[in-house]
Amino acid sequence: MKNSRTVGSYVLAGAGIGALLWVAFKPNKESFQGMLQTVKNKVIPSKATQGLPIEKAGLSDPMDIDDNKMVSEGSMYGVHYYNKNEQDA
Predict the structure, then answer these.
(1) Which of 19, 70, 83, 87 stands 20 to 30 A from 2 (CA)?
(2) Mind listing the pLDDT tens digit for each residue in 42-65?
(3) For residues 3 and 5, what is the distance between their CA atoms, to the nearest angstrom?
(4) Is 56 helix (H, G, I), strand (E, B) or coil?
(5) How much is the pTM?
(6) What's the rounded Cα separation, in Å, for the pair 55 and 57?
(7) Which long-range contacts (CB under 8 A, 24 or more apart) does 70-79 make?
(8) How many CA atoms lie less than 13 Å away from 62 in the CB half-sphere?
(9) Counting beta carbons within 10 angstroms of the beta carbon of residue 59, is it exposed (0 to 12), middle (13 to 18) or buried (19 or more)?
(10) For residue range 2-35, what is the model confidence (pLDDT) as tens digits?
């Protein structure tokens, strides 16, 4: 058991050193920094995008025809799904 842990430690250390050497080259470093920035933007959104999704939440405006049409069409999905499952059972 101890021998496999030692081998695993060497493999992990070798992979870490290989990754550091890979990142040391300039083209790889730039692509790696780009990947890190993309992940960071997805995990921690910027201040500009924090308040966006709440703009049209809640009751729809009676004068917004497109929004009302979407709501009326989408509201029947659950009813049709339920009816289909009840008829098949």
Answers:
(1) 19
(2) 887 666 555 555 666 666 677 877
(3) 5
(4) coil
(5) 0.33
(6) 6
(7) none
(8) 0
(9) exposed
(10) 677 788 888 999 998 888 877 777 777 788 888 8
